[in-house]
Amino acid sequence: LCVPIWNSNHQIIGVAQVLNRLDGKPFDDADQRLFEAFVIFCGLGINNTIMYDQVKKSWAKQSVALDVLSYHATCSKTEVDKFKAANIPLVCELGIDK
C-alpha cells in the first residue's frame, strides 16, 4: 500500500509504503484511510523540518549581514572627535544645492 506525502503547497514530496499486514490479508479501505491519516502527519513533520531549516539559514544570513554592517558602521572616538572638529563647508558654499 503506497500513499503520497504532500507538502503545504499540495506538491508530492515523497511516498510512504507499508508491506504485508500481520494477519496476511490484503489491505482494505479502512487500512488505506488510516494510513492516509498517518501520512498527513508525516507530511506536516517533513514540511515543518524544511521550514525550520529555511528559518535557520535566514537567521544565519541576517546575522552575517548585521555583523558586516556593524563592522563598517563603527569608528573610534578619535575619528568621531576629528570629524566633529572638521570644517565641513555647507552645501550652498559648494554650489551643489541646485
From TrEMBL:
Gene3D superfamilies per the UniProt record, alphabetical: 3.30.450.40
Listed name of the protein: Phosphodiesterase 11a
